[in-house]
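Recall the central idea of this unit: under ordinary conditions, the amino acid sequence of a chain determines the structure it adopts. In this exercise we apply that idea directly, starting from the sequence alone.
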Amino acid sequence: MSELTRLFARINELAKNSNRLIVAIAGPPGSGKSTFVEKLKNKLDDTVVVPMDGFHLDNVILEERNLMPRKGSPQSFDAKGYVNLIARLKENQETVFAPVFDRDKDLSRAGAIEISETTKIVLTEGNYLLLNQDPWNQLDDFFDLTVFLDVLSEILRERLIKRWLDQGLSLEDAVIRAESNDLINASLVSDRSKDSDFRINNF
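Accordingly, the structure predicted from this sequence is:
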């Protein structure tokens, strides 16, 4: 049985005895988290996806804090806001609205995802969900199941450079953007994330 098949079986098993199941999918930038989560969602009933990326700080704030070159790093997120959202989702006492990050507009849109009290499974994905530093480590109390996407560093590098090329950057600029920020963040995630319940290699 493949690790992915085992994961589907485990989610369905846990969901039978839970009013609200929260599954965290973590991994470095470029590991395929969004694609992986959509694949999971399409095979599960009554499931909503809540990305961590909705908690990006606005570019105006990043500029004020000289963080624009490090956008996507842990300090460029409203981490406590994300932790509070996941806590509310775990309590499951009311309908909750979550933000989403609009990549085309390069900003977060508030209240873009509705999670009702009847939603059985919440899939949440992001780079730092298993990061072993405050306040990210507070998320342990709310996740029922954790997954880590582990991808070889050379594959991550290719994917991240291509991501910038697809946004219109030259090869030189794409390499600079990847190496000066994305790959630094990727190393942090790989080195400082806690163990997960499931590990998916080279998705």
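The chain has one domain: 3-151+195-201.
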